[in-house]
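Justification of resources, computational component.

The compute hours requested in this renewal are based largely on the per-chain cost of generating structure records like the one below. Each record pairs the submitted sequence with a full structure-token output. That output is archived, and it is also reused by downstream analysis tasks.
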Amino acid sequence: MKKKTLTGYIVDGVIYDLDTSLLICKSDEIMNDTALYYSKNKNFFIAERDKVNGKITAIKPVVPEEAMKYANSNVETINQQNYVAAFGKLKEG
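The structure output for this chain reads:
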């Protein structure tokens, strides 16, 4: 399902590039770290990285609703500029 290329990871015929995508936020888990990205082609995806060897173990494309839920669960790590670029201007509370 996931194949590393020179510029990213291919999942179901679509390339997901961590270097050219915006990092929205991340989550620090016991065995793996996960991070939400927004690609230049306006796709959201979650990358999972093994803490032991530092390698990407999974790339999971997600719909905007899932991406928003992930971001709302990891508010302490949100990159506000990238969040606005991905989801649009924030409303003031």
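The longest strand covers residues 22-28. Strands lie at 2-4, 9-11, 14-16, 22-28, 32-38, 44-50, 56-62.
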